């Protein structure tokens, strides 16, 4: 839509608001918001009415009469109440859960609009919607679940099927994206990536056994998990253009999900050479912003050794750290010893926590659990601090985010600064050997 065209629509909005036009509502703001609706292909009349309502004006009655204001999925934040959406059902599945010992049926799936997609859970045993339906939802609410915003359809929700043309297929044109930009809610995507790993399993869907394929894919910007609900004969090392997939995420780790409605095209393997797929180094702010990431490297300074580092006892049943042989779930147990270092890493752009397992901790510290057992606790903690506190280290692994922050599950760890005196001694020694 041309700028001039839009300008007359902005006039209309301002005219409709003239009685109660607030000083704060500038033409510029209205234009910005209207543009956003246009960008996502929302029909102009609908966009205008939504904005007029938003700013408190009166509009002609529409099918949105009962709902106060339509929200775009991409704008949803956690803990919103009375959420009203116009969206298309991208997937819907029943699920049985156990609540207080009783089996209950609920539904889960994905909803989409012009701006993006969102996972939902419907807490009722009846849900009369199908894949492809366009529905008006009012009085839903949002929560944060494992690092993503999730929509909940509770007792107060109203769901009305409406004309499919209100959200035509064309509103769901897949957008080209690099793997690093994949995050839940972006809507249909078009991704070109190399398959690094593929696993096959079977699962029950509506009483039918279905093959599901999942694994890891990558481009030069990063890695992500994928799940394919259709057999596209994908093989390891294939370079594929996958068009029409959706992104979900688990603790911030993106997962591309696609089914028979997607197109999967095999491309020349040279399009994404294997050598371009190294572990990506990422500044911490980026990981925190994305809430998580798969197989990345971070570098920073250890700014804190946290309580709970050193020798600990674990429950033999559930592996939880325990104190005095008492597990919060399993009661009195015979604890087994373990060793870990919990630290906070900071690179100047942000900080993450990481709990290093026994093997990584022993390697970094150059001492074993058995050796630490001979020390008293204070000496042990002092030794850990001396060797790690304020040192620069590199960690490799997966970053997982949730409401408590982001933590790195390290698979590799190394110290990259060194003791200058030690290093000088080594140099001398090497020189002497040369002479
Ligand atoms: Zn336990």
Structure described in brief:
The chain has 435 residues and is of the alpha+beta class. It has helices at 3-17, 27-39, 44-54, 284-290, 358-365, 369-373, 377-388, 420-434; strands at 83-99, 102-113, 116-122, 134-145, 148-153, 158-162, 175-176, 189-205, 208-219, 222-228, 239-250, 253-258, 263-267, 280-281, 293-305, 310-314, 321-322, 326-327, 331-332, 336-346, 351-356, 392-402, 405-415. It is 20% helix and 43% strand.
SSE blueprint and pairings:
Blueprint (H helix, E strand, L loop, with lengths): L2 H15 L9 H13 L4 H11 L28 E17 L2 E12 L2 E7 L11 E12 L2 E6 L4 E5 L12 E2 L12 E17 L2 E12 L2 E7 L10 E12 L2 E6 L4 E5 L12 E2 L2 H7 L2 E13 L4 E5 L6 E2 L3 E2 L3 E2 L3 E11 L4 E6 L1 H8 L3 H5 L3 H12 L3 E11 L2 E11 L4 H15 L1
Parallel strand pairs: 3-5, 7-8, 10-12, 14-15, 21-23
Antiparallel strand pairs: 1-2, 1-4, 2-3, 4-5, 4-6, 8-9, 8-11, 9-10, 11-12, 11-13, 15-20, 15-22, 16-17, 16-20, 18-19, 20-21, 22-23
């Amino acid at each position: 839509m041309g700028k001039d065209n839009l300008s007359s629509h902005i006039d209309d909005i301002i005219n409709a608001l003239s009685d109660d036009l607030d000083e704060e509502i500038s033409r510029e703001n209205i234009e910005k918001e209207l543009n956003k609706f246009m960008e996502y292909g929302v029909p102009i009349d609908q966009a205008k009415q939504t904005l007029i309502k938003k700013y408190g004006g009166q509009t002609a009655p529409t099918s949105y009469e009962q709902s106060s204001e339509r929200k775009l999925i991409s704008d949803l934040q956690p803990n919103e109440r009375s959420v009203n959406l116009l969206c298309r059902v991208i997937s819907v599945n029943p699920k049985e859960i156990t609540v207080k010992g009783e089996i209950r049926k609920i539904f889960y799936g994905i909803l989409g609009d012009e701006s993006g997609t969102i996972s939902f859970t419907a807490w009722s045993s009846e849900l009369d919607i199908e894949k492809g339906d366009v529905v008006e939802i009012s009085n839903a609410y949002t929560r944060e679940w494992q690092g993503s915003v999730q929509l909940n359809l509770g007792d107060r929700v109203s769901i009305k099927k409406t004309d499919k043309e209100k959200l035509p297929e064309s509103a769901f044109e897949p957008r080209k994206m690099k793997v690093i930009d994949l995050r839940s809610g972006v809507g249909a995507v078009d991704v070109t990536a190399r398959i690094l790993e593929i696993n096959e399993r079977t699962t029950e869907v509506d009483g039918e056994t279905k093959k599901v394929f999942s694994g890891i894919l990558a481009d030069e910007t990063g890695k992500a998990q994928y799940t394919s609900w259709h057999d596209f004969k994908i093989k390891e090392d294939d370079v594929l253009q996958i068009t029409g997939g959706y992104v979900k995420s688990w603790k911030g780790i993106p997962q591309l999900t696609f089914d028979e409605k997607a197109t999967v095209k095999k491309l020349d393997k040279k399009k994404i050479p294997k050598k371009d797929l190294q572990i990506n180094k990422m500044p911490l702010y980026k990981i925190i912003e994305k809430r998580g990431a798969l197989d990345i490297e971070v570098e920073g300074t250890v700014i804190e050794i946290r309580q709970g580092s050193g020798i600990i006892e674990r429950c033999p049943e559930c592996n939880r750290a325990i104190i005095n042989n008492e597990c919060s779930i399993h009661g009195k147990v015979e604890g087994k010893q373990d060793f870990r270092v919990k630290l906070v890493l900071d690179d100047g752009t942000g900080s993450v926590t990481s709990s290093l397992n026994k093997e990584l901790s022993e390697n970094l510290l150059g001492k074993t659990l058995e050796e630490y057992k001979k020390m008293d606790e204070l000496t042990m903690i002092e030794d850990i601090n001396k060797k790690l506190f304020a040192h620069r280290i590199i960690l490799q692994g997966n970053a997982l985010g949730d409401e408590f922050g982001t933590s790195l599950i390290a698979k590799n760890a190394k110290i990259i600064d060194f003791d200058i005196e030690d290093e000088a001694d080594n140099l001398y020694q090497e020189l002497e050997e040369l002479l």
